[in-house]
Amino acid sequence: MALSRSATGSNSFCRPCQAQGRGFTETVLDHSTGDLICTTCGLVLQGRCIDEAAEWRNFETDSVDLGMKFNEKQRGGGTDGQIDKMTGSLPSTSFSGSCAGFESLGKFQSMVDTQSLSLTLSSSDRMSKNVTSKLTDYAKSAQLTESTLQRCLKFVNHLAEKNQLGKQHDVPWYYAIVYLACREERTSQTTRELAAAGFPSSSSGSEDEFEKQMRKKIKSLERPQALGTLLRAAKKSYIQPQELVPRFVSKLSLSRQVEQPAMVIAQNARKYKILELGSLKDGETEQYAIIASAIFMATHLLCGDTANLSLTDVAIVAKIPEVTVRAVYGCMRSHYKQALLPEDFKDRLQNGMLPELPPAKDPTPRRPEVPTVRTAAILAS
Question: Where along the chain do its domains lie?
Answer without folding.
Answer: 3-46, 83-118, 123-235, 241-350
